[in-house]
C-alpha cells in the first residue's frame, strides 16, 4: 500500500513539473506594433535590422535625404498605411506599408506608380520601391 502511495506521489510530482515546464517553454512575449513605428518595423522585418560595421565611418556613408512632397503624396493613397520616399547616394527608394485587406495587385499597382514617378524625377539614379504589408509580407519589390 505504501509503495502505491509513493508511486502516485511521484507521478503527481512529475505531472506538476511537466506542466510548469510546458507553460514556461511555450510562453512568449509579444510586443505591440505601436511600440515601434510602423515603417521601421516593416523595414526591419523585410530587410533586417541595421548592422554595425566598425570599418565604415558615418562620414563615408551617403547622406539620406527625404523627399517630403512625394512622401506626403504617397501617404494620401487610399491603400497606404505609412511610407516614405528618400534618396541615398545614387539610389532613390520608396518604402510603402500597405493597409490590411488590400489585394496584392493593388499594392503592386501603387508600387509601380511610384517607381515610375521616381524614374521621372530622379533620372540616372537606381530606383527601388518596396511595398510590404503591416505584418512584413513583401507584396512588391520594383527596381
Q: Which characteristics define this entry?
A:
143 residues; alpha+beta; GMP Synthetase, Chain A, domain 3; five-stranded mixed β-sheet; 23% strand
Chain-wise SSE layout:
Blueprint: H1 2-26, H2 38-47, E1 64-66, H3 68-75, E2 80-88, E3 91-98, H4 104-121, E4 126-133, E5 138-142
Number of strands: 5
Radius of gyration: 25 Å
CATH architecture of the domain at 37-47 and 65-142: 2-Layer Sandwich
Indicate the percent of residues in helices.
Answer: 40-55%
Describe the overall structure.
With 143 residues, this protein is an alpha+beta fold. It has a domain at 37-47 and 65-142: GMP Synthetase, Chain A, domain 3. The chain has helices at residues 2-26, 38-47, 68-75, 104-121, and strands at 64-66, 80-88, 91-98, 126-133, 138-142. A five-stranded mixed β-sheet has the order 1-2-3-4-5, with helices on both faces. It is elongated, with a radius of gyration of 25 Å. The protein starts with a helix and ends with a strand.
Amino acid at each position: 500500500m505504501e509503495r502505491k502511495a509513493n508511486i502516485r506521489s511521484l507521478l503527481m510530482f512529475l505531472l506538476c513539473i511537466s506542466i510548469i515546464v510546458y507553460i514556461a517553454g511555450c510562453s512568449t512575449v509579444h510586443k505591440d506594433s505601436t511600440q515601434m513605428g510602423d515603417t521601421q518595423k516593416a523595414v526591419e522585418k523585410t530587410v533586417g535590422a541595421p548592422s554595425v560595421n566598425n570599418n565604415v565611418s558615418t562620414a563615408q556613408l551617403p547622406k539620406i535625404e527625404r523627399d517630403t512632397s512625394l512622401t506626403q503624396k504617397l501617404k494620401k493613397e487610399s491603400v497606404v498605411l505609412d511610407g516614405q520616399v528618400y534618396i541615398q547616394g545614387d539610389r532613390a527608394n520608396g518604402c510603402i506599408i500597405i493597409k490590411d485587406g488590400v489585394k496584392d495587385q493593388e499594392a503592386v499597382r501603387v508600387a509601380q506608380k511610384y517607381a515610375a514617378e521616381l524614374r521621372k524625377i530622379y533620372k540616372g539614379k537606381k530606383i527601388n520601391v518596396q511595398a510590404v504589408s503591416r505584418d512584413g509580407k513583401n507584396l512588391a519589390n520594383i527596381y
